[in-house]
């Protein structure tokens, strides 16, 4: 069920990104358009994350060419770029996340490369270059350092928000009793198994390599 919800969220995020790129008055939507993509990177396996990134990019192209004055060139080259670049970004992002944990800084640096890769699609300021244009400070940053650094800042904030929301989700599940932490003061019975998979998926915590077991079990035997 959560996979279907994320797919729907990816489509909605693509629609928000299209509106942000095509209409300056809606540029603020770009701050939220990336959230579904980052949740996919954080939660899905690399191959599925790549598929989600491709889906996100395809819908950006589809929504863009339906506008009277599309901000993205309606060409085959644009379609290929918007399909492959987000797919590679999401797939590699999910792979890195499985090794070292979800890292907004690394995702921000990688996004700068994605923006440069999408330049031939006709995006003068990239996908995120116009997002924070309403702020005087970010206008200065964009003018002095380039739109890719503006995009880095937007990605850093959005990915950090995903980390916060993921932590809140874990806390809520624990308060509801759906996730339990081991009691340090209680005796551990023989053959007790403590599931560590939830802890391994938390923000900034290293994950097991892709080829290792998805769930780590700690067995304590008296």
UniProtKB/TrEMBL annotation:
Keyword Transmembrane helix: yes
Assigned keywords, A-Z: Membrane, Transmembrane, Transmembrane helix
TM helices/strands, residue ranges: 30-47, 54-73, 79-97, 104-123, 143-165
Protein name stated in the entry: Uncharacterized protein
Lineage per the UniProt record: unclassified sequences, metagenomes, ecological metagenomes
């Amino acid at each position: 069920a959560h996979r279907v919800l994320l797919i729907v969220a990816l489509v909605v995020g693509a629609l928000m990104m299209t509106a942000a790129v095509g209409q300056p008055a809606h540029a603020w939507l770009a701050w939220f358009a990336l959230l579904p993509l980052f949740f996919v990177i954080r939660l899905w396996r690399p191959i599925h994350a790549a598929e989600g990134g491709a889906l996100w990019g395809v819908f950006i192209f589809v929504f863009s060419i339906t506008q009277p004055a599309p901000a993205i060139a309606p060409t085959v080259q644009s379609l290929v770029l918007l399909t492959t670049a987000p797919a590679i970004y999401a797939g590699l992002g999910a792979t890195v996340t499985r090794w070292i944990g979800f890292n907004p800084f690394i995702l921000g640096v990688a996004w700068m490369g994605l923006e440069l890769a999408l330049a031939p699609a006709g995006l003068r300021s990239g996908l995120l270059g116009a997002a924070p244009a309403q702020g005087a400070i970010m206008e200065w940053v964009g003018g002095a350092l380039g739109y890719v650094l503006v995009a880095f800042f937007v990605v850093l904030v959005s990915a950090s928000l995903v980390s916060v929301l993921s932590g809140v989700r874990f806390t809520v599940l624990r308060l509801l009793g759906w996730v339990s932490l081991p009691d340090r003061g209680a005796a551990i019975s023989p053959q007790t198994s403590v599931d560590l998979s939830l802890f391994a998926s938390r923000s900034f915590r290293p994950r097991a390599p892709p080829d290792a077991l998805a769930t780590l079990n700690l067995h304590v035997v008296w």
